[in-house]
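Late entry, evening session. Most of the bench is empty. Finally got around to the prediction I had been postponing all week. Sequence below, unchanged from the version circulated by S.P.
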Amino acid sequence: DISKGAGAFAGSEAVDIFNAKFSVLSPGTHVRPHCGPTNARLRAHLAIRHTGGAFIRVRDETRTWQEGQVIVFDDSFEHEVWHNGTEARVVLILDFWHPDLPGEKRSFSEYGGG
């Protein structure tokens, strides 16, 4: 459910990114378990700043971020994040179309929110 690193994009001719935003997670924060609105997209987290103590759980897998590394996951699965560290964790979030979704089904207005 969670793929780490650029290998997550292996075999893809192009990744069609349609949404990007920064996420800053302060120490002591817990984003409770939730599910994204659709499996038409995948979500990538590029760790910009992380000194430790922050974690993400997707279904039954728990990972942490490493600066300069990417975590890719399907956010339609239940996931949560928490931060027990001492400094803010900063990631760039990139949403891109699931590679199995046909081009004619790719609609930002229908699936792009979040």
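Two things to note before I forget:
The chain has a mean pLDDT of 88.
Strands lie at 2-4, 17-25, 30-34, 41-49, 54-58, 61-63, 70-73, 79-83, 89-97.
Will write this up properly tomorrow.
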